[in-house]
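Justification of resources, computational component.

The compute hours requested in this renewal are based largely on the per-chain cost of generating structure records like the one below. Each record pairs the submitted sequence with a full structure-token output. That output is archived, and it is also reused by downstream analysis tasks.
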Amino acid sequence: MNDFLLKHKVWFSIGVIWLFHISAIIGISLGNVNWFIEKTPINLGICFFLFLLVYPINNYKKFGALLLFFSGGMFAEWLGVNHQILFGEYTYGRNFGPKLDGVPYLIGTYWALLTFITASIMDYTTLSSSIKIISAAGLMVLLDFFMEKSAPVFDFWHFEGGLPTLENYWTWFLVGIIFQIILKAFKIKGDKIFSLNLYLAQLCFFLFFFLKS
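The structure output for this chain reads:
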């Protein structure tokens, strides 16, 4: 009975995630850019809530890792926004939600979320731990790459001079590797099919607008 309920909880959550992302693609394509993009914090907030429920984050070790990645992501972004260290020169716009000293709380949440789900995706493979770590960090960078083209259009963030330099991607990759090493050391695992669908929904959304622009 518990397995039955768990299975349906996972697929219901996956359905909600795809519904939100596909609706946003259609709505934005039809010209309702502002209405949908202004709802980004709500969309990511719901995705994060479902992640907490389904992954699940259900013990002190997982919660501690989540808090560590959130704090680490916020600190790295704070260095970037306020001191132009790590990622280059950039600022956050208004559509990524409330900020702490120029850094949206959602970006810290996003760092944590991506760390967990990309690690789970690589758990589909039988690769060595070191290759899984590198590949999971690569998946994080891949998503960021496709996000960068839409980010200024959607007023998520803006780089000085337009698009980011290689510094941004190398930093994402190195920070991602550090986070993945920590996650592997904690021996944390979560729901793989939920993680894969959440990642693919995000990737499809940003890939669509990357190819369209």
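The mean pLDDT is 94. The chain has one domain: 2-212.
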